[in-house]
Amino acid sequence: MRIAKKAVTVLALAAAGVITAVAFRYVPLHDFVEYWTAAHVFMRHQDPYSVEALMKLQQAMGWSEAQPLMVMSPPHFLPFLLPLGFMHSYALARLLWLCLSIAMLVFEVFILWRLYGGDDDHRWISICVAGVFFPVWHCLAVAQIGPLLLLGIVGFLWLERRGHLFMAGSALALTTFKPHLFYLLWLALLLWSVKRREMRVIAGASVTICIALTAALLVDPAALSQYMALIRSDYVWEYSSGAGGVLRSLFARSLLARSLFASHSHLLQLAPMLPGVLALGWYWNKHSGQWQWRDRLPAVLTLSVLTAAYGWPFDEVVLLVPVLMIAVQSLYAPRERSTFTFWLAGMFFASLAVVLRYGDAGGMTVCAGGVLAYLVVDSVTARKNESSTPACDSSLAL
Asked: pTM above the 0.90 mark?
C-alpha cells in the first residue's frame, strides 16, 4: 500500500512538472525575473544593484513596466543566486526553482509538524494545511524566496531545541536576506542572549553572514557600496506594502495628512514598527522568565511580520510556523479542529479577495492579522480553562 502511495505521488509530481514546464511559456514575468537578471549581471562581475543594468536585461525579456524589479536583499544573499547565472534557459531555471521551493516547503512542514508534537501517521495533514495557506500559493506563483527564509526559521528551532546553538545561529542567518521581516525576532534574540549570557546563536549567525559576504565580495568587490547606493535611492520608496503601505495609502487620501506629512509621507512606511517594538517589550517582560523558542517564536514572528516596514503576501510563508503549531494543537479536539479548518479556509479567501481588490499592501496584513488574532483568542480561552484543566497545554499562550 505504501509503495502504491509513493508511486502515485511520484507520478503526480512528474505530471505537475511537465504541466508547469509547458505553462511557464505563457506565465507573465514576475519576481523571479529580478533574481535571474541579477544573477547574470553578478556573474559578469558587474553591479547587480544597478537599475539601468537590470532594466536593460528585463526589457529584453519582455518587461514593460516603468521600473525594473530589483533585488533588495543584502550582498551576502548574492552567492545563492550564482547557480542561476550559469543557466541560459529562463524557463528551465524557473522550473528548477519551483521544484526546489516545493521540496523545501515539504521538508519544512514535516519538521514543524514533528517539532510541535504531531505524529507521523497524521503528517499528511501538514501538507494539506500548507496547501490551503494563501501565501504558499502566492510565493510559488511569483517564485519568491519565502521557502529559503522559512528554512532559516525551521533550522533555528530544530537545532536550538537540540542544543546546537552555533549551528542554530547559522541557520537563522538566512532570515537576514529580508531582515525587515524579522526585526522583532532578532531583537528578542538579543534580549535572550544577554539575559542568558549566551552568544553562540549570534556568533553562528555572524560567522555565516561574514562567509557569505566574503564570497560575494570576491565576485564583486564593490557590492556593499552598490547595495548602499540602491538603498539610498528613491527606488526604495517606489513601492508601498504591508501595514505601512496601508497607512501611506490611507493618508494619501486625507488633505490634513498630506499637509502634515508633505515631503515625508514615506516615513509612514516605518510607523507600524513602533507599536511592534512596544508589544515585544510587553511580551518579553511577561515571558522572559520561562522563554522557550519553540513556544514563543510563533507569536514574535507573527507580530514582526505584521508590523514590518515592508512585506508582501508571499513573505507570509514564514507564518506556517504558528499555523502548523495551531494545527497540531487542534488535531485531537473536534471543536478546535473545526474552528481551525474554517479559520484557515476563511483566511485563504479573505487574502485572495483583498489582494485582488486592494493589492498586495492590504493583502499583507490579512494572514498576519488573522494568525495574531487566533493566538490572542486562544490565549484568552486557555486562561479561562486553566482552573478547570490544570494540565492544559499553554504553548499558544500569549
From this structure: no
